[in-house]
Amino acid sequence: MDLATFLVQCLNALQYGLLLFLVASGLTLIFGIMGVINLAHGSFYMIGAYMAFALAPFVAQAVGGGFFATLLVGLVLAVALGYVLEWGFFSFLYEREHLQQVLMTYGLILVFEELRSILVGDDVHGVQPPAWLAGSVPLGDLMTYPVYRLFVSAVCIALAAGMYFVLTRTRLGMMIRAGATNREMVQSLGIDIQFLYRVVFAAGVALAVFAGMIAAPISSVYPGMGNQVLIVCFVVVVIGGIGSVRGALFAALLIGLVDTFGKVVFPQAAGVLVYVMMALILLWKPDGLFRAG
Amino acid sequence: MSPAAALIEARGVHAWYGSSHVLHGVDLALARGETVGLLGRNGMGKSTLIRTLLGHVRERDGRIAIAGRDMSKARPHEVARAGVAYVPEGRGIFPNLSVRENLLMAARPSRDGGRDWTFERVIGTFPRLGQRLGHFGAQLSGGEQQMLSIGRALLTNPDAIILDEATEGLAPLIVQEIWRVIAAIRAAGIAAMVVDRDYRRVAAEADRVVVLQKGRVVLEGPARTAEQHAQLATYLGV
Q1: What is the complex's ipTM, to 2 decimals?
Q2: For labelling alongside A9, which of A288, B13, B26, B237 has CA 20 to 30 A away?
Q3: Beta partners for B221?
């Protein structure tokens, strides 16, 4: 592998890992803080991707279009969706057993897929990146790298930094981390944990939807794309440690590297490498690499 | 005591854990600035009573009022916002938050906007916490955790603090320190409800004691004289 190819693969690994992180960070927070196994989390990614495709014509009609206007509209809808779902479904799951959580959230996957089929159809679609991000930058003499992928990585890094700031430097972040270990005490300090959960859930949904929207121009938009990402995201959560955002970032980047380079160096086994890695890490550290909070 | 003077007032409070009926019509009042000792043998309902007053036991019945407002159906954060702070059994420290974060995450002014207890005052009261601000809750000793738990409660500028087994499992020297702090809380005009195994100490520090037996109040009043102590000892089986 020459240097330019190596660089391209590194950038691909970074971009894939960061995108995974956006989806998995919400999953790990919802799992770690609220104790809910949300199988429907991957669906939010799918919903995001389809929003990027399906909302664009409406946004074009209303405000003259633009990728960023579509992103903004999608984000607002995502927060609203998260808020309503928490209120209508997930708030009933906190003190239930994991089996009931799994059944209900699996049911939600079916509902979301069916709704998607009714509203948008079952076709595979492509989404164009905005024109000014559509080009490539040269890497070495022979290779180029798409600007849009660099843009995705940059946006993800900015969001990760923002999350880090909120979680470690603000009172909201302190409350969220405290809620992961002792929710009764959080309440007795005067914090409305129901509201806190609703905020965290809505943020988690928004992150997954956002990830789906910005991934759409890279991965295309297809039925069942949520389920694929869900499984990898659970691997991220398990490796990183349930409830640990830092762990999710580390694990997502690790998976990005192993998956990307696995496909190049060891293509016959690329499909299983990530899972072998998970098994090895769990043998070494059964609770994952990082602790919650 | 007239209801208006009571900060916390419970009338005919029942509570259940699943099918087991734990509290059977408890009447209890805590006046502003008053210190009440809540006593009883293990499993007689002390912690359940506290958790019911704080809104943590959902299956409950009867009337609970705080500062004259009906809080019978209130959720825990509403009870806390009404001015009742909690120092739970086991201390309830957030192990993954630093000492500073444990203290600051819920700091707020009192209901009338006062900030008698500031971060600096709490650190002044517990100098050991001041030396450990960057440590995580999990890294503290039991005594330090207890101080942190009390300091955190004070930073919400409450009208009342409920302390459940605040001296449990601590070295004698630290136990003295905790009682000194409880006396300081009293001197600061904050009402307190204290659960502790050392009934003699509770009797000495509190204005009066309330004894629970099988989920009912069986004795209530000051415990100062030898006769009152003897009666208390009978109920507590010591």
Answers
A1: 0.92
A2: A288
A3: B209
